[in-house]
Amino acid sequence: MVVLSQHEHFPYLRNCIGTNNNLLYGGIPLIDLSQPDSKQLIVKACEDFGFFKVINHGVPMDFIRTLESEAVKFFSLPLSEKEKAGPPNPFGYGNKKIGRHGDMGWVEYLLLTTNSEFINSERFKSVFGEDPQKLRFALDDYILAVKKMACEILELMAEGLKIQPRNVLSKLLMDEQSDSVFRLNHYPPCPEVEGGNVIGFGEHTDPQIISVLRSNNTSGLQISLRDDSWISVPPDQDSFFINVGDSLQVMTNSRFQSVKHRVLANGLQSRVSMIYFGGPPLCEKIAPLPCLMKGEESLYKEFTWFEYKKSAFNSRLSDNRLGHFEKI
Ligand code: GA4
After folding, report:
1. Cα–Cα distance list, 57 to 233, 239, 309 (Å)
2. Which DSSP helix (H) or strand (E) runs through 136?
3. Prior bond to 132 cis, omega within 30?
4. Rounded Cα gap, residues 280 and 272, in angstroms
5. How far is 206 from 275, CA to CA, in rounded Å?
6. CA of 291 relative to ligand 1 center, distance in Å
7. I want to staple 88 with a disulfide (CB 3.0 to 4.6 A). Which of 39, 111, 131, 170 is the partner?
8. Ligand 1 center to residue 99 CA distance, Å?
9. Cβ–Cβ under 8 Å, residues 120 and 137
10. Which atom of ligand 1 is nearest to the CA of 208?
11. What is the mean pLDDT of residues 129-146?
12. With DSSP H G I counted as helix, E B as strand and the rest as coil, what are the percentages for the chain, rounded to 5?
């Protein structure tokens, strides 16, 4: 495993290495959304890594800080209080158990739908105690801004791929029925880290189209490269990290590949991350975009997001979920 050091003082100057026009930040592609060449660089990053870091993203820092402080407040409550918001089936508070088939991690979390119906529901109110207003407003502001940025990235991606219309991907997230999920993770400092790596969140790919992650300044996230080695992603609380999900892999007929990633527990510091998982409506067919095919055969059988999601949620974290849907 390659562990990349994090430079404190001039991170951009020290970490930027140019290859094929692609800036790398600690080995990770860096995309400046304000630059005109970002569309080509996004495509390249999705082909080579399925992962990149985004700066000049336009999400107000105020929304990020408010949501982080509300999340920290929630995770600081006594366990008995937090458990009132669980179990996460499918939404709510979870502790160490991930999914339905025995995966465990050094993590506690809140899993939420992104539609305001849930956030405004009686269940949410009962779960989040006397004054759920602040967390609710913080979630609403943050999710709306991050979804807007995710759609902008998907539109730049479509332009970079030279496919039309430019909203061919973003419209799936904009759809009222979009099946997107939001996750707040807290990785407490882990006393057992001394003896070796402790898994905070085991290796997996995300089933959706695109995931947008932001964390505080605590390390832990690692991504797997095409040669199966792992690299540590230097944390940056002011930027976002984008993952290609399984559905986007299928829609590009494997030109892009979903990125395998995991989180290792930290011995000293708490890690707090917030992730928006942009998914399509349940009834949407997930298949390679015809305009990308140029005579190629689809590598996948046809399926809907509902079918994929059902199968994915019945899998273990590290399973190759797309395997069942590949043509032989
Ligand atoms: C990974 C991406 C998202 O966090 C998530 C996860 C979901 C869960 O935590 O319940 C899953 C995992 C994720 C993929 C395989 C199944 C389902 C845990 C698990 C073992 C919310 C999602 O959509 O898929």
Report:
1. 18, 8, 29
2. helix 133-160
3. no
4. 26
5. 11
6. 30
7. 111
8. 6
9. no
10. 23
11. 85
12. 35, 25, 40
Q: Tell me the per-residue pLDDT of 43-66, one tens digit each, with 9 for 90 and over.
A: 999 999 999 999 999 999 999 999
DSSP per position, 17-83: EEETTEEEETTEEEEETTSTTHHHHHHHHHHHTSEEEEES----HHHHHHHHHHHHHHHTS-HHHHG
Ligand 1 proximity of 277 Cβ (cutoff 6 Å):
yes
Determine the distance separating the centroid of ligand 1 and the alpha carbon of 107, expressed in angstroms: 13
90 lines ligand 1 (CB under 6 A): no
- Asked about 183 being catalytic, the answer comes back as no
Which ligand 1 atom lies nearest to the CA of residue 312? Answer: 15
The closest residue, in CA terms, to atom 14 on ligand 1 is 317
- Whether 322 is in the pocket of ligand 1, judged by its Cβ within 6 Å, is no
Exactly one of 226, 271, 316, 321 is catalytic; name it. Answer: 271
Q: Which of 206, 211, 275 to mutate to test the pocket of ligand 1 (most atoms within 8 A of CB)?
A: 206
Residue burial 188-221, b: 16+ Cβ < 10 Å; e: rest: eebeebeeeebbbbbebbbbbbbbbbbbbebbbb
Q: How far does the centroid of ligand 1 lie from the alpha carbon of residue 198, in Å?
A: 19
Q: Count CB atoms within 10 A of the CB of residue 29.
A: 21
DSSP secondary-structure letter at 176?
T
Q: Which two tokens stand for residue 75?
A: 């995770």
Q: What are phi and psi of 69, to 5 degrees?
A: -70, -30
- Alpha carbon of 175 to those of 122, 144, 178, 290: distances in Å? 24, 13, 5, 21
| Ligand 1 contact, 209 CB (< 6 A) | no
Q: What is the per-residue pLDDT across 202-234, written as a single tens digit (0 to 9) for each?
A: 999 999 999 999 999 999 999 999 999 999 999
Distance CA 219, CA 88 (A): 26
Which token pair is 313?
């949620």
Please tell me the distance from the alpha carbon of residue 199 to that of residue 327, in angstroms, as a whole number: 33
How far the first Cα of the chain sits from its last, in Å, is 33
